[in-house]
Amino acid sequence: MLFYPAERIFPASLRLRSYEQLTDPARRHRHWWWRWQPALWMDAVRIGLAVWLLNFSVTPVPGEPRSQVTAVLSGLLLLGLIPQMVTRRKDNAMFAPVGYVLAMLCVMLPLTAALPIAALGIVGLMALRDFTVIFLVGSITTVVLGYLLGAPLTTACMVAAVSALPVVVSAMFQCKLVLPVRSQGESLPTAPLR
Question: Which of 37, 79, 153, 160 yields a CA-CA distance of 20 to 30 A from 7?
Fold first, then answer.
């Protein structure tokens, strides 16, 4: 479940939109686009279940430090993120794995730490209107708030690394992070990276 590409889950009728295109009032699509996207919600549930099963199955042997298990788990989660971003639907675009990161955050960290971190990332996304913000703010606050609110430091650093990977991958391939949404408006080309 973790390595199954998101592109195969999302229906072909969904259009790829950057965050600027989602909130543009001149386009013909709902302002509450995130409510009516069952594919996005099911993808987050699928990833949450996969991460929970992986975390449950990878347990340390008695006497073995938890940091080795965390290293193996982070490697698997980093590798699992790559197929979630790849798309052939539009040139110079990659899926923004928001559901992947939020599901992993809620499973790997205590909820007392995960919910404030997710809220800060979403507020940063709305304030600065770019998908990279949710990943950068999320990774920085994961280390700080995750550790302060009770998560082990190695786990908080692992979640932060996975949260920052979409920014690194999209910058490396010079692609814009987009989200597939149901919309009657026409799909606009994304702005080139600076």
Answer: 160
